[in-house]
Amino acid sequence: MSNRGVVYDLGYTPYEGDHLGRRGAIRSTYRDGIYRVLGIKRRARKKILPWTLAAFAVLPAIVFVGFAFLLTTFSPDAESPFGSHADYFELTGTVVLLFVALAAPELLIPDRREGVLSIYSSRPLLPDDYVGARFVSLLTVIAGFMLIPQVLMYVGFAALDADGFFSTLWSNAGDIPRILASTAVYAVAYAPIALLVATIANRKSAATGVFLGGLLLVPAMLVIEGLPTDVTNLGRSLIVYMGIASTFVPFMIFYVLLRTISATSVSLIGYLVPLVALVGGILILNEQLEPGIAVGGLFIFAGMILTDRAGRAATHESLIPGPEAPERDELPLAREE
Fold first, then answer.
1. Residue 118: phi, psi to the nearest 5?
2. Cβ–Cβ under 8 Å, residues 337 and 11
3. Where are the alpha helices (DSSP H) in the chain?
4. Both ends of the chain: CA-CA distance in Å?
């Protein structure tokens, strides 16, 4: 047996900087999260959506302060749709909702799909450190979206007030705790849910759709149908059950299945939903099986069979070996020992 060893030069650039340890790794992950959601040091198309939403959040505050500076008769509380801090949160809250729906998947899904997590694990970075740094980076950007326009309005209107800058700041100091509390509520309400969905979904578009669908459909239903008036405790329990067991848990299982089995198999499970509901209605609620429903069930079975055969055929074709790939050139030999 030969004692000679061979070392190959793969062309990687060695790291020659300082070794900052675990805290440095956390800071780098946090900073990279902010850069990523804002598109900094990335392609131009990655900057369009975040900075457009940032402009929607900040520009109205700049415009209102400018009007108050140029027009002496302009009254923010009376003449602007977002004169008060509470009213302006309605605008920035919607902008933040859209931003979080786009930013949370961007923070987690590319690292998982592109295999970057294995590189993170080679550093002194624990899994909780990674998730925590990503979470705090998202909270930081959310706070910027919410607080920057509020600070502009707070300072700008105080500078233009006839009672004096510092006097107005002091008299309105009671708004500061409410502004900070409102910002915290928006951040805590949006960020954890969006990141939870992003940890399960494999596609950014799917994660964005699930998050927006869950947070937008419920208010829309309440606006259209109105708040229920006389709901019993049993009714409240059933509403909670429908939201958790019938909606949230099935969607989470759906995305877990997409990571483990093919999309064709997942679609077959989706076809079974109306059949299970039909059988449950007949066995539990004593519903009658009408001819039209029976025919619809047969069509569902036929669709399942055709979909299964198409999926099997596609899998069989993917297993047929193609032409052999050309052999790779030998790696450059760096030195022999």
1. -65, -30
2. no
3. 21-38, 44-70, 76-79, 85-113, 117-121, 127-160, 165-171, 175-200, 204-225, 233-243, 249-260, 263-284, 291-319
4. 15
Are 95 and 190 contacting, i.e. CB atoms less than 8 angstroms apart? no
Radius of gyration of the chain (CA): 28
Question: Which candidate, 210, 309, 305, places its Cα nearest to that of 254?
Answer: 210
pLDDT digit of tens for each residue in the chain (337 aa)? 567 777 777 777 776 777 777 888 888 889 999 999 998 988 888 889 889 988 888 888 888 777 767 766 555 554 455 456 677 787 788 888 889 999 999 998 888 888 777 777 777 788 888 888 999 999 999 999 888 888 888 887 777 777 777 887 788 788 888 888 888 888 888 888 888 888 887 788 888 887 887 776 666 666 666 666 677 778 778 777 777 777 777 777 776 776 677 666 666 666 777 777 778 888 887 887 777 777 877 877 777 677 666 656 655 454 445 444 444 444 444 444 4
What is the Cα–Cα distance from 327 to 317, expressed in whole angstroms?
24
| CA distances from residue 121 to 22, 116, 117, 170, 318 in whole angstroms, order as listed | 11, 9, 6, 49, 33
Q: Give residues with Cβ within 8 angstroms of 12, minimum separation 6.
A: none
Q: Which residue is it, tokens 């998947």?
A: 105
pTM higher than 0.85: no
DSSP category for residue 201: -
Task: Residue 264: name the closest of 208, 303, 210 by CA.
Answer: 303
Tokens of 320: 């047929």
Place of tokens 């009213």: 87
